[in-house]
Amino acid sequence: MMIAFKNNRPFLQTGHCVISDYDVDWMEQVLLEAAQDAGTTLPCSREVAQAVMLYLEKECPLHAVPLDYLFNRIRKIGQRALSDMGGIYTLGTSFGTRLYNNVISDIDAYTYGGWGLYPDEGSEGITLENNLVYDTKDASMHQHYGRNNILRNNILCFSRECQVAVTRVEPHRSMTIERNILYWQKGDAFGTRYRGIANGAKLDWSKNLWWCCAGEPRFNGKSYAEWQTGGRDAGGLVADPGFVNPAARDFRLRPGSPALKLGFKPFDPAEAGCNLTLNR
Fold this sequence. Notes:
This protein is mainly β. About 15% of the residues lie in helices and about 35% in strands.
């Protein structure tokens, strides 16, 4: 379900159905209860409610508010009981929104859609940066469709089906993907289910570090050099990033990591999550 505003009136969207232009009885009821709590009456409650709604519609323009979604630790979502979900999910235009310094892990799905970062349904103007995502089913990052999003300086590891995915091919630039570390066990970097990358989605790749533990990585069935043809991932590299202990999910970088030469800026995943000390 999505709750949004159209012409400054609230409406609900659930599935393919939109519920809008409903009356203001709910606001009238709130006014009546407030008057009752104050020990008085409000004989013109409906007129007041309608006046408030009219004011909101005419005098209070609404704008999308940029959000910061940061330093969260998100894990064990879906667990083969649900499908089509992500550790962090976005939709729609949201210029200036930043999703950063989150740790997302163990996202699993019943059929499809066990993603870590999931910009869906026209996500636009969002920066996804300094996130650690690992042990997902379908992809560490999947964009259904969107415009001018940025995936930068993330550590994306051990997704089982593919590492990054895009579903829809669109006429505009869908995403910039730069200075990320992508590290996985086996299989094609882009898998076979989500075909947007293979079919020519407009993505700006640069300076990413790739490593497949099973051997030479494949990119839509091609070698890295073959896939780079046409200017993809300029300045990128296939090399072991030098994690401290990836088997134990310790993704700190050892000194001299080749990721540093690509401009990757280390961040501390330990800062994510609740670190409160309770007085007992």
